[in-house]
């Protein structure tokens, strides 16, 4: 029997035990439900990826991305802005769990860290002071160049500094690196492209880009080697979710603009980077989406092949004909553009294994009674150059007695039928079906699908066996692992959301893209006119010089440039010159050269006419006073001639502005080409050309008003 004292203590013991058990259970539940927290280190000065805003908060692409992934995956993060080098050291010593800092994935870093899937595709660019004359790596010989430690720009500069004979100064942050160039201690800085572009365009940094973007590598999130697979897996899963629900793109656009495209180019993993040309208007194989990114079966396929085989790609949307010419001229390495494999083309190109089996169909207006080839007799049929549909129509046109009207893009071909100029269009089946079913184009299929050929990826004949083998191997891998089928289903397996094709709907959805095209048009025009003005003045002075040899030089130049159509000159500059000289040239550079050479001839004549309009007695009077020819020309003749020439100069500017539209033929995405690209997606050619026309009219009207104002001021003294 228990003692009285013990009986009194028992309830207290049980109560204490109960509290202990209850407390332990609570603690265990709390532990089970507690959200896991990771310490993430980052840089301090790498805008737009990580930087402090006006409130002292760390913001940027990296910051918003890791916070969004944490929310998606149900963990918390503590951000530690340590600086790049300190962040890596902290990760090595396990002071932090991960690092996100615009960090390039390299083989060397893979020895120490495990990386996530790439979340950003970068590149390298060289920037110089606004007033600098440096425009190439060759100009750096004997000079000092600034780089930031740990960046892709620093790695690239290190790789070429011996070749070009410059030295490097290394900085811990971007701000001091930029200031070193601004102060003149360094003549240039190598930096990751998005960082430099953000600093110049959004922050007003007094530097300018001096080179085209070099193919870059990928940014990744890092954890210590073999220590945190859980965090890495959650990052990859969250990143995939953000990409699928649009959050990822929204973050990119917030800091890089609506044209942000982080997947256009695939970085090289193990091999070199290849330039791949494509069409611009061949949905669902290649077309621009509402964000300005090139998408479609071909685009997804070549990117997946490149990733599978470890080589890099740079996409060049040129248009079908220009793409083939660029491949012949070795301006590009390959072409993927829904290109049918034919015996004729095999004479010029080597093809991959077929990646798509197509077919041909005839479409007519929705209210048309035509339902067979026999109904086409005596009528006109629309086709697009280079397509399987065009080849088929050509093969039967004599049998059925119809004529062909050929177009360079599908959108205009469809509109020709809708407008009634042609009664039908022959097109590759998947393209026509996509336009009718997915985009709501007002046509209908009038015939069953004809047996067609195969699409292949082309390289120049006997010149790129290595690339062709990798394409074939990658294609086989994608077909075996199911990726190929997924790509097809993305574009052919379900209905596609149609765009708002009304006048105001097109403006609302595409105003940023249109303004970018207009800005590029104006920029190219200004650059061309400045160069043309300098050249035109020299040629004009040659034409009025007493020296007969100079007269002949001026006459020959003007006659050649005025005699060659601008489109022929554009093709010559972009395709022939690189082929003859063994160089590669961007469409922008080729476009500026073309317009400059053309406009210089007309400006030279304007200059000559202005000088001739000044009374010849004024030259005689100046000479009689003992002035030299040059002094008389500079002090007496030219001031009067310039007043006469001002309206003509402005008029030539307007003409050059309109001439930029011709450059779309070489893939330059100015205002007209921008319109074509939007039409290729929406098929709303009527409203879109109205919008494009109004934009040209507004700009040209403003220039005309400026011209008249200048003319009036000069006349009034």
From TrEMBL:
<dbReference type="Pfam" id="PF00497">
    <property type="entry name" value="SBP_bac_3"/>
</dbReference>
<keyword id="KW-0029">Amino-acid transport</keyword>
<dbReference type="InterPro" id="IPR001320">
    <property type="entry name" value="Iontro_rcpt_C"/>
</dbReference>
<feature type="signal peptide">
    <location>
        <begin position="1"/>
        <end position="27"/>
    </location>
</feature>
<feature type="transmembrane region" description="Helical">
    <location>
        <begin position="556"/>
        <end position="577"/>
    </location>
</feature>
<keyword id="KW-1133">Transmembrane helix</keyword>
<dbReference type="GO" id="GO:0043190">
    <property type="term" value="C:ATP-binding cassette (ABC) transporter complex"/>
</dbReference>
<feature type="domain" description="ABC transmembrane type-1">
    <location>
        <begin position="518"/>
        <end position="707"/>
    </location>
</feature>
<keyword id="KW-1003">Cell membrane</keyword>
<keyword id="KW-0812">Transmembrane</keyword>
<feature type="transmembrane region" description="Helical">
    <location>
        <begin position="583"/>
        <end position="604"/>
    </location>
</feature>
<dbReference type="InterPro" id="IPR000515">
    <property type="entry name" value="MetI-like"/>
</dbReference>
<feature type="transmembrane region" description="Helical">
    <location>
        <begin position="522"/>
        <end position="544"/>
    </location>
</feature>
<protein>
    <submittedName>
        <fullName>Amino acid abc transporter permease protein 3-tm domain</fullName>
    </submittedName>
</protein>
<dbReference type="InterPro" id="IPR035906">
    <property type="entry name" value="MetI-like_sf"/>
</dbReference>
<dbReference type="Pfam" id="PF00528">
    <property type="entry name" value="BPD_transp_1"/>
</dbReference>
<dbReference type="InterPro" id="IPR001638">
    <property type="entry name" value="Solute-binding_3/MltF_N"/>
</dbReference>
<dbReference type="GO" id="GO:0006865">
    <property type="term" value="P:amino acid transport"/>
</dbReference>
<dbReference type="InterPro" id="IPR010065">
    <property type="entry name" value="AA_ABC_transptr_permease_3TM"/>
</dbReference>
<feature type="transmembrane region" description="Helical">
    <location>
        <begin position="688"/>
        <end position="706"/>
    </location>
</feature>
<comment type="similarity">
    <text>Belongs to the binding-protein-dependent transport system permease family.</text>
</comment>
<keyword id="KW-0472">Membrane</keyword>
<keyword id="KW-0732">Signal</keyword>
<dbReference type="GO" id="GO:0015276">
    <property type="term" value="F:ligand-gated monoatomic ion channel activity"/>
</dbReference>
<keyword id="KW-0813">Transport</keyword>
């Amino acid at each position: 029997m228990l003692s009285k004292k013990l009986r009194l203590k028992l309830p207290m013991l049980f109560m204490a035990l109960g509290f202990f058990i209850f407390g332990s259970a609570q603690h265990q539940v709390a532990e089970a439900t507690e959200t896991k927290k990771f310490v993430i280190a980052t840089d301090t000065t790498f805008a737009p990826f990580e930087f402090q805003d006006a409130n002292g908060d760390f913001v940027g692409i990296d910051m918003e991305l890791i916070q969004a992934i944490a929310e998606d995956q149900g963990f918390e993060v503590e951000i530690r802005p340590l600086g790049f080098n300190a962040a890596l050291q902290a990760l090595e010593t396990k002071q932090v769990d991960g690092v996100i800092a615009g960090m390039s994935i390299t083989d060397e870093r893979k020895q120490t860290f495990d990386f996530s899937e790439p979340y950003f595709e970068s590149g390298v660019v060289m920037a110089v002071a606004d007033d600098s004359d440096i425009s190439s790596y060759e100009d750096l010989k004997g000079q000092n160049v600034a780089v930031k430690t740990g960046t892709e720009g620093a790695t690239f500069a290190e790789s070429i500094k011996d070749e070009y004979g410059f030295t490097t100064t290394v900085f811990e942050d971007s701000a001091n690196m930029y200031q070193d160039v601004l102060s003149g201690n360094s003549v240039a800085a190598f930096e990751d492209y998005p960082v430099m572009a953000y600093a110049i365009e959004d922050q007003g940094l007094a530097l300018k880009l001096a080179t085209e973007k070099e193919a870059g590598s990928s940014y990744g999130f890092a954890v210590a080697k073999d220590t945190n697979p859980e965090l890495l897996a959650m990052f990859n899963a969250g990143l995939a979710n953000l990409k699928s629900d649009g959050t990822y793109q929204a973050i990119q656009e917030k800091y890089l603009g609506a044209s942000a495209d982080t997947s256009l180019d695939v970085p090289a993993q193990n091999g070199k980077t290849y330039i791949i040309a494509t069409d611009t208007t061949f949905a669902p194989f290649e077309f621009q989406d509402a964000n300005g990114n090139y998408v479609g079966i071909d685009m997804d396929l070549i990117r997946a092949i490149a990733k599978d085989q470890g080589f890099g790609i740079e996409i060049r949307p040129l248009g079908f004909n220009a793409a083939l010419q660029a491949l012949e001229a070795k301006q590009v390495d390959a072409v993927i553009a829904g290109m049918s494999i034919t015996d004729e083309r095999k004479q010029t190109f080597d093809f991959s294994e077929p990646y798509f089996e197509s077919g041909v169909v005839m479409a007519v207006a929705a209210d048309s009674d035509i339902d067979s080839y026999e109904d086409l007799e005596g009528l006109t049929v629309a086709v697009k150059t280079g397509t399987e549909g065009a080849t088929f129509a050509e093969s039967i046109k004599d049998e059925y007695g119809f004529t062909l009207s050929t177009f360079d893009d599908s959108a205009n071909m469809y509109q020709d039928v809708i407008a009634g100029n042609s009664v039908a269009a022959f097109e590759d089946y998947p393209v026509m079906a996509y336009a009718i079913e997915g985009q709501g184009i007002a046509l209908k299929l009038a015939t069953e699908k004809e047996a067609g050929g195969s699409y292949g990826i082309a390289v120049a004949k006997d010149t790129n066996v290595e690339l062709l083998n990798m394409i074939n191997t990658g294609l086989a891998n994608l077909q075996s692992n199911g990726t190929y089928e997924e790509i097809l289903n993305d574009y052919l397996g379900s209905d596609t959301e149609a765009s708002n094709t009304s006048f105001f709907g097109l403006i609302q959805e595409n105003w940023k893209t249109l303004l970018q095209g207009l800005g590029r048009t104006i920029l190219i025009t200004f650059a061309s006119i400045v160069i043309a003005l300098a050249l035109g003045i020299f040629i004009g002075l040659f034409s009025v010089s007493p020296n007969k040899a100079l007269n002949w030089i001026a006459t020959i130049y003007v006659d050649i440039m005025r005699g060659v159509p601008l489109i022929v000159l554009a093709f010559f500059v972009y395709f022939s010159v690189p082929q003859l000289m063994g160089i590669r040239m961007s469409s922008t550079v080729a476009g500026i050269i073309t317009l400059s050479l053309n406009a210089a001839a007309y400006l030279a004549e304007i200059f000559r006419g202005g000088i001739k309009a000044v009374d010849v007695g004024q030259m005689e009077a100046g000479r009689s006073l003992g002035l030299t020819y040059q002094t008389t020309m500079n002090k007496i003749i030219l001031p009067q001639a310039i007043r006469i020439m001002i309206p003509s100069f402005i008029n030539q500017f307007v003409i050059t502005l309109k001439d930029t539209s011709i450059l779309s033929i070489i893939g330059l995405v100015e205002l007209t080409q921008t319109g074509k690209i939007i039409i290729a997606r929406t098929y709303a050619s009527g409203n879109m050309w109205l919008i494009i026309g109004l934009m040209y009219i507004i700009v040209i009207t403003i220039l005309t008003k400026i011209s008249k104002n200048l003319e009036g001021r000069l006349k009034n003294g």
